[in-house]
Amino acid sequence: MNGPEPADGGCWGEQWKTCAPSALVLSPGVAYVRGWTAARDATGRLAEQVRRAGLDQDFMGLAADVSVYGNGLVKLGTITAESAQWLAVLLTRGLCEQAERAAFDTGRSAA
Fold first, then answer.
1. Is the model's pTM score more than 0.90?
2. Burial letters for 34-64: b for 16+ Cβ neighbours within 10 Å, e otherwise?
């Protein structure tokens, strides 16, 4: 599904889903509940991982929301630069581990 192109030159392509404004005024026919429920579930999963990493006090603004188009949004809130660096490190480590597992599984299936 393609979103409308913003008149203000803001978001284009797939980015329209995440930088659309919050749904402050609801429109009939938009599945807000579905989007918000997805955002709530994702926010809960992220909050648990942030807590496990010991960063929960740095992500006090973590919240679920929904856009005017019904897309679920997860708001991280304002975080310190140090917290953003830690989040980047954790994401990088997770991606590296995922790539190592994929390489291992590929090598194992080729044998």
1. no
2. ebbebbbeebeeebeebeeeebeebbeebeb
